[in-house]
Write a structure and sequence with these properties.
The chain is of the alpha+beta class. It folds into three domains: 7-116, Butyryl-Coa Dehydrogenase, subunit A, domain 1, CATH 1.10.540.10; 120-220, Butyryl-CoA Dehydrogenase, subunit A, domain 2 (Beta Barrel); 223-401, Butyryl-CoA Dehydrogenase, subunit A, domain 3 (Up-down Bundle). 53% of the residues lie in helices and 16% in strands. The strands form three sheets. It has a four-stranded mixed beta sheet with strand order 1-4-5-8, with helices on one face. A four-stranded antiparallel beta sheet has the order 2-3-7-6, with no helix packed on it. It has a two-stranded antiparallel ribbon with strand order 9-10. The longest helix is centred in the middle third of the chain and has 39 residues, at 222-260.
């Protein structure tokens, strides 16, 4: 398979990298992430000027119709620069509107493309953990629409969003699942803004009889379940791409530290045992990179290959999340060990990079959750089981050796 990117994609990645290096230096980022209300609009405006908000939006709504492979390059560079902006939160939430295709909500995509609207996906709840199908939020029919009541947890950039994608139940059982677009400033929406350990912003959101119009309903029943699965797989592909960028930066920082830190009169990078560790870190990164690329390709092609393609998309997305999660844990732990005590201090980028990898691992399901999802998806597919499990278990010998 040809994994070479087009010249336009490469130029886009280079442009995003230069932006991150120039306007999002390590010291600048520390200021942004500790600001009381989260990052300002300065860097966001530059992302908009580069066309990054328009990149994944349909052409009819002023976008460039970019797919997951195009977004992979953007997310990789944002991850490398540890850019803490509501970009992922917005394009992930907008994916629900894109895939639903309802005429009433398509105007939102035009605003996202123009950079004037930020969105967030309010899917998790206190009891759901990693299973987004566990939904206690209720939507009841009211005059001309619905009234939504419930609580949403750990909503990425939820306090900075203008619109929320909210999952709720119209009735008991799996067929009662529904997805809505909710105005984040509507009466009854209470948002508590919090900062995570990696400097990102999340919100706890309380919905108290929030009134929405009938056309705020994106999907319900089986259609809602399919929409949720497809959008989550898209989000997983983007998170895996971001993790690749973070791991690239962490590997580079560790190598540079090993060249300059001296013990016994010589750089520690000359010690064979540390050279072996850094080789293993590189191998983990390359295997994770391959799975991230594959996940992006499957997300882009699944809709054109029917039910079998969607089943394969779920398998590959979960396999990629497991692989990337394993690699992130290994690389992060080894980087901290090689840095010594400095590896956990906020004065060095290594600690911030490891924290971001930790949060990516927990977003949209951790490795344990996706290993079970992978097994469940494989059980219903006509595949060679030994080959199907290869992406998940290939790193085990390396982990045992380490």
């Amino acid at each position: 398979m040809d994994f070479d990117f087009t010249s336009e994609q490469t130029q886009l990645a280079d442009t995003v990298r230069r932006l991150a290096e120039k306007d999002y230096s390590f010291e600048t980022r520390k200021h942004f992430v500790t600001a009381p209300n989260g990052p300002g609009d300065g860097v966001w405006a530059k992302l908009v000027d580069l066309g990054l908000t328009a990149l994944p939006m349909p052409e009819a709504q002023g976008g460039f119709a970019g797919g997951a492979v195009d977004l992979l390059l953007v997310m990789r560079e944002l991850g490398r620069g540890l850019v803490a902006e509501p970009y992922f939160a917005t394009v992930f939430a907008a994916e629900f509107v894109k895939r639903a295709g309802g005429e009433a909500q398509l105007g939102l995509l035009e605003e996202v493309a123009a950079g004037t609207l930020k969105m967030a996906a309010a899917l998790g709840e206190p009891a759901s953990r990693h299973d987004l199908g566990v939904v206690d939020t209720r939507a009841t029919a009211s005059s001309g629409g619905y009234a939504i009541t419930g609580r949403k947890s750990v909503v990425l950039f939820g306090a900075q969003a203008d619109r929320l994608i909210v999952s709720a139940r119209l009735s008991a059982g799996d067929d009662g699942l529904a997805l809505f677009v909710v105005d984040a400033h509507a009466p009854g929406v209470v948002r508590n803004d919090l900062r995570t350990l990696d400097g990102q912003r999340v919100a706890e959101i309380l919905l108290e009889s929030v009134q929405v119009d009938a056309d705020a309903l994106l999907a319900e029943g089986d259609a809602a379940r399919d929409l949720l699965d497809a959008a989550v797989d898209y989000g997983i592909a983007l998170l895996c791409a971001e993790a690749i960028g973070v791991m690239e930066a962490l590997n580079a920082a560790t190598l540079e530290y090993a060249k300059t830190r001296k013990q016994f009169g010589q750089p520690i990078g000359r010690f064979q045992v540390l050279q072996h560790r850094m080789v293993e870190m590189f191998m983990h990164l390359e295997q994770a990179r391959s799975m991230a690329y594959l996940a992006a390709v499957k997300v882009d092609t699944a809709s054109a290959t029917g039910d079998a393609g969607r089943q394969e998309r779920r398998r590959v997305a979960s396999a990629a999340k497991v692989r990337v999660g394993q690699a992130a844990r290994f690389i992060g732990q080894q980087a901290v060990q090689i840095h010594g005590g400095m590896g956990v201090t906020n004065e060095l980028p290594a600690a911030h990079l490891f924290k971001r990898l930790t949060m990516i691992e927990l977003t949209l399901g951790d490795s344990d959750h996706h290993l079970q999802r992978f097994i469940a998806a494989s059980a219903g597919a006509h595949v060679d089981e030994q080959a199907a499990m290869a992406p998940v278990v290939a790193l085990e010998p390396l982990q045992r050796a380490a």
